[in-house]
Specification:
By secondary structure, the chain is an alpha+beta fold. It contains 13 helices and 19 strands. The strands form 5 sheets. Strands 12-15-14-13-16-17 form a 6-stranded antiparallel beta barrel. A 5-stranded parallel beta sheet has the order 6-2-1-10-19, with helices on one face. It has a 3-stranded antiparallel beta sheet with strand order 3-5-4. It is elongated, with a radius of gyration of 25 Å.
Length: about 425
């Protein structure tokens, strides 16, 4: 045999899986079809790389949307604190931000990638870039190696497949691993977008394209019942809405959306204020701007671009002077500020999703080792498995934890 272990895919799961196995004495080769490692990792968190979450383990299970119990062994073996300690040992200090999100102190995803590369080099992992695997080779349901796209073969009795999902295909996540696993007899749960921007029916969102709103609350209603609620930051786009709380909502409502049930979003622009408090606030602003037109009296309360939309939705005359506004009209304004409605008509395509929901069925993977129950010596790690979570660093922790456990398991087997 050429190697003890072949790792297919140079993302966070693959890099940590390879270095973990090699640190325990295995001769490991890491194969990556891109020209560099960690391409998707580079763009996560807008290039800042939200590596994990500082919350306790119960927070993780609450934020995992698919098969949380499957990850019990992976998290127990390598949790968020072990990841933070590993990064520190590799020279990457971290910081905790809103929502317990953990980022490199430098705000540079490239520092995390360099640290993982250093970990690979320190443990003598051989890395081959621009090397695409065409087929996994099996004999009598036992791994024997891989066939590359140039028709060369590499032999090994064990393989970790960490090729990612189908989101951001420009980074190399093109679903290769799914087809390879399917050919070996594995069931693939249909890949769907998770953490995905939402398309809305209303045309006025286009006028607000690029506008970010912070500290807003959004409810998702299905058949007039609240299905999910999120607080934080959102952004308007030319097609609808995006931003952290929209991405999380997309995962929370995806089952309903897939059933073609109408989904309504209700945005509360001032969730910290009751309707009475907001009315009092309006009255103070109107006194301050007495004699001005309504459209020029809301600058203290709303971003400039939002004012015309709010007034249009409320039905209150934009050209009225504030001292002419009746109590009823003020009540309409308050109601609008706390109940802006949007109709969801769909999601953006899978290739724009942050992560992929679906993948290799967890029923066919041993959760204690991440070895296939179908093919001996075949292991899976990262997004290729049917597990996904909300935003906040949880998905990257899943990649690191499953990467570590798969690498550890190959060394023990």
């Amino acid at each position: 045999m050429d190697y003890d272990l072949i790792v297919v895919g140079g993302g966070p799961a693959g890099m940590l899986g390879a270095s973990t196995a090699a640190s325990r004495g295995l001769k490991v080769i890491l194969l990556e079809k891109n020209e560099k490692l960690g391409r998707k990792l580079f763009i996560t968190g807008k290039g800042r790389c939200n590596v994990t979450n500082y919350g306790d383990i119960s927070d993780f299970y609450r934020n995992i949307m698919s098969n949380p119990k499957f990850l019990y062994s992976a998290f127990k073996t390598f949790d968020n604190h072990r990841l933070i300690a590993l990064l520190a040992s590799l020279g990457v200090q971290t910081k905790v931000e809103h929502g317990n999100r953990v980022f490199p102190a430098s705000d540079k995803s490239s520092d995390v990638i360099k640290a993982l590369q250093k970990h690979l080099q320190k443990n003598n992992v051989e890395t081959k870039l621009q090397t695409e695997v065409k087929k996994i080779l099996v004999n009598n349901q036992q791994i024997v190696g891989v066939l590359l796209s140039n028709n060369k073969q590499i032999s090994a009795p064990k393989i970790i497949v960490a090729t990612g999902g189908m989101s951001y295909p420009q980074t190399g996540s093109t679903g290769d691993g799914y087809s390879m696993a399917r050919k070996l007899g594995h069931t693939i749960i249909e890949p769907k977008p998770a953490l995905i921007p939402l398309i809305t029916k209303e045309n006025w969102v286009k006028d607000l394209q690029g506008l970010t709103l912070k500290n807003v609350s959004i409810k998702a209603l299905i058949n007039n019942k609240v299905k999910a609620e999120q607080f934080g930051e959102m952004i308007f786009t030319h097609f609808g809405v995006s931003g952290p709380i929209i991405l999380s909502l997309s995962s929370l409502i995806r089952d309903s959306a897939s059933l073609n049930k109408p989904v309504q979003l209700t945005i509360d622009l001032k969730p910290a204020l009751t309707s009475e408090q907001l009315d009092a606030r309006l009255q103070r602003d109107f006194n301050k701007y007495s004699g001005k037109h309504l459209k020029n009296a809301l600058d203290d309360l709303l971003p400039q671009r939002m004012i015309a939309v709010v007034l249009q939705l409320s039905g209150v005359d934009i050209h009225k002077q504030v001292n002419q506004i009746s109590k009823t009209e003020r009540s309409l304004l308050v109601h609008t500020l706390k109940n802006i409605s949007l109709t969801v008509t769909g999601t953006r395509p899978l290739n724009e999703a942050i992560v992929t929901s679906g993948g290799i069925s967890v029923k066919e993977i041993n959760p204690s080792t991440l070895e296939s129950k179908i093919v001996k010596g075949l292991y899976f790690a990262g997004e290729i498995i049917d597990v996904d979570a909300l935003t906040g660093g949880y998905n990257l922790q899943i990649a690191f934890s499953t990467g570590f456990l798969s690498g550890l398991s190959t060394a023990k087997a």
